[in-house]
Amino acid sequence: MSAQQLSDVSANLIAAYSDTMRNMVNVYRASGERVAELLEQQWSTAMGQSQTQLSAEARRNAKRTHDVVGSLYHQGLDLSASGATAVVDKLTELAKQSVQLASANAAAFDERLGLPALEKLAQAATPVAVLAGHVAQHIQDKSGALAEHISGENKPAARPVSAFAKAKARKRSAF
Fold it and tell me: What is the residue extent of each domain of the chain?
C-alpha cells in the first residue's frame, strides 16, 4: 500500500466525520425548533388560561414581547446552526488540503532520501485508517438516523385511537 492509498483512506475518513458533524448540526437545529414549538404551546396555554385576568394592554404587551423573543430565538438558532455548518465546511476543506499536502510531501521526501521510510509507515498505518474509516462510517450512519428521528422526517404513522381511549378522554373533559 502506498502513501497515496493512505491519503485516499484519510480523505474518506475526513468525509465521514464531516458528514457526522453536519448531522449533529441538523440535530441541534431540529431540537431547537422542537423546543420553540414546545414553548409556543406552553405560551398559548398560559395566555388562554390567563386571558380573562389580563387587561387588553397587558395582553398586547405580552404578545409583542412574545413575538420579539420568539424572533430573536429563531434568528439565534439559525445563526448558530449556519455558523456551525460554515465551521464544519472550513475544517473539512482544511483537513483535506492537509492530507493532500502531506501525501505530496511524503512522496518527495522518500524520493530525496532514496528510502521508502514513509511508504513503509503508510503501509503500516493504512489498515488502521481503514478500520477507523469503518467506525466513522458507522457513526455517520447512526448520526444520520438520529438526525432524521429528531427532525421527524421519518415519523411512524399515527396509531389509531381506540374507542376506549376516546371514551376516557370524553369522560375526563366532562369534569
Answer: 3-174
